Amino acid sequence: MANHDNHKKCDIGLIGLGVMGRNFAQNMADHGFSVAGYDRDKEKNQALMTERTEQQDLRVADDFKEFIGLLSRPRSVMMLVPAGDPVDAVIDELLLYLEPGDLIIDSGNSRFTDTNRRIGSIESKGFQYLGMGMSGGESGARRGPSLMPGGTRKGYERIAKILEAAAANVDNDPCVAYLGPGSSGHYVKMVHNGIEYAVMQLISEAYDLMKQGLQMEPEELHGVFDRMNQGELNSYLMEITSDIFLQKDEKTETPLIDVILDEARQKGTGEWTAWDALDLQVPTFNIDIAVMMRDMSAYKTLREKAGHALAGPKPLFEGEKDAILQRIESALYAAVIIAYTQGMALLGQASKRYEYGLDMETVARIWRGGCIIRAALLEKIRSAYQSNPDLENMLLDDQLGRAVVEREKDLRYIVCTGSAAGLPIPGLMVALSYFDALRSRRLPANLIMAQRDYFGAHTYARVDAAGTFHTRWGKQ
Questions:
Q1: Using one digit for the tens of pLDDT, what is the confidence trace for 437-465?
Q2: Of 121, 202, 369, 410, whose CB is crowded by the most CB atoms within 10 A?
Q3: Distances, alpha carbon 460 to alpha carbons 328, 440, 453, in Å
Q4: What is the edge-to-edge ordering of all strands in the sheet holding 128-135?
Q5: pLDDT tier for residue 3 given thresholds of 50, 70 and 90
C-alpha cells in the first residue's frame, strides 16, 4: 500500500466531486500530485475514496473549514460545479476561509461575462482568479482533457505543472496553455462549444442525407462513417458517430439510434456564442443555424402536424450510391472547414475587442487533443496561423482555402440535391452561403442601404465619393 503522509498539505483542492470532478481529481493524483476534494453530497466524497487507487494521494473533507485546512499555502482551489448561481455560492463560502494571495479556479462552463464580474470582485479583495475551460467529457477529465485557462498569469504559473501533467498530450505537447487575461479562457471554451454545435449539426445532416436520401441502415452507416474517419475528416465526433450506429437497444434489440427521440437539448453555450457574435458583428452562420435547428427539433408535436399537412417531395436520391457518398464526404469536409473558419474569426475579433491577446496558433494547438472538437484538421489550422499569425480569415490561407475551393462543386451539388429531395440541410446550405458571400466582391447591401435611407433617412455611402449622403426618395 502506498505510504501517503497525511500531515503533508495538499497541492491543490477541488470542489465538486461529480463524475467530472472525481475523474479530474484522480487524473491529477495519477501524476503524483496530492489532491483534496470536497462536495456537499457526502456520497460523492465517498465515491472518490472508493474509486481511488493505492498510489493516489487523495483526501476528502466533511466541510469547508476542514477542506481549506488540507491545502498548502498559498492555496489553489479548483471548482467543477454547474455554471451560474452555484459558482457564486461556492465563491462566497470560500472567501470566508481563504487568505489574500490564494487562487480560485473556475473550471466549469461559466459564461464569460460572469467570469469578468467575478474577477473584478475577487481580485479587488486580494485573491487571484482563473476562468478555465475544460473539454473532453468524462473520459477526457480522467485521461487528459484540453484545458483553456485565462486570468491572472501568476495564478496560471502557480499550477502550470499540475495542468500540463493532467492535460491531454499530442506529440509530447500538453493541450493546455495560458491564453490571456480576464475571461479569455472561458471565452475560448464558449467558442469551442459553438464550433462543436456547428460540426454536430453538419454531421447530423450528412447522416440524414444517407439515412433518408439513400435509405441506408445503421450497420451500413457505421461502415461509411468509420471509413470517413480514417481520412481527412478524422475527428473525435466522427469516431463516436461511427460507434453510435453499432449500439443496440437493450429493450428492443434494435439499433439504439432508431429509438432515440429526435429532440436535441442544449445547455446554452451555443446560444452564448451566437449572441456574442451578433454583438461583435461577426457572421457565424453555422453556429447560429445549429442553435436554431436544436430549437426547431423541440417542436416535435408541431412538426408531426406539419408533416401531415404540408406536401413535399419524397426524400429519395437518384444516382449511383457510391458516387453520392463520395460527394457527401467531400461536401462535409468543406463545410467543417467553413464552420471552424467562423469560430476562429469570432475569436480573433473578440481578442481585439476584449483585449485578450489570443494567439490563434496556440488555441488550435491545445484543441488537437482531449477536447470534443479535436480533429486532424486542427493541425492544418495550427499551421495556417503559425505561418501567418495575423491571418484575417482561415479561407485566405492557401491550403485551407484551396481545400474548400476544390470541394465547392460537391458542396453545391449536395445542397441542391438535398434541397430537391426536401431534406432540411441548413448547415450545409449556410456553409455554402458563407463561402459565396465571403468571395463576393459585390453584395446587394446597396439596396438595403437605399431602403433604409428611403424610409428612415439613415444615409448611405457612395462608391465614387467620400462621406455620407441622403436622398429625398421619390421626389423627382
A1: 999 999 999 999 999 999 999 999 999 99
A2: 202
A3: 42, 20, 7
A4: 58-60, 35-38, 12-15, 76-79, 103-106, 128-135, 146-151
A5: very low
Q: Say if residues 246 and 218 touch (Cβ distance below 8 Å).
A: yes
The cell for 148 is 483553456
Please state, as a whole number, how many other Cβ atoms lie within 10 Å of the Cβ of residue 349.
Answer: 15
Asked if 324 contacts 317 with a C-beta cutoff of 8 angstroms, the reply is: yes
Q: How far apart are CA 128 and CA 117, in angstroms?
A: 13
- Catalytic residues, which ones? 189, 196
The overall average pLDDT reported for the chain is 94
CB 96 within 8 A of CB 64: yes
For residue 85, the one-letter residue type is: D
Which pLDDT band holds residue 34 (cuts at 50, 70, 90)? very high
Q: Residue 35 gets which letter from DSSP?
A: E
Q: What is the pLDDT of residue 381?
A: 98
Percent of the chain with pLDDT over 70: 98
Within 136-247, residue ranges assigned H as helices are 137-143, 153-166, 184-208, 218-229, 236-244
The residue whose grid cell reads 470542489 is 15
Is residue 2 pLDDT above 50, yes or no?
A: no
C-alpha torsion sign, points 296, 302, 307, 312: negative
pLDDT band at 1 (very low <50, low <70, confident <90, very high): very low
Q: How far is CA 394 from CA 166, 282, 345, 347, 383, in A?
A: 31, 14, 8, 12, 11
Distance of CA 229 to the CA centre of its chain: 20
Q: What is the mean pLDDT of residues 374-400?
A: 97
pTM: 0.94
**Cross-strand bridge partners of residue 174:** 169
Contact 166, 140 (CB under 8 A): no
Judged against a pLDDT cut of 80, whether residue 418 lies above it is answered with yes
Going from the N-terminus, what domains does the chain have, and what CATH number goes with each?
12-182 (3.40.50.720), 189-438 (1.10.1040.10), 444-476 (1.20.5.320)
- Do 294 and 270 contact (CB within 8 A), yes or no? yes
Which residues does 417 contact at the CB level (< 8 Å), separation at least 6? 213, 317, 324
Contact (CB, 8 A) for 144 and 175: yes
Q: What percent of the chain has pLDDT over 90?
A: 88
pLDDT at 318: 85
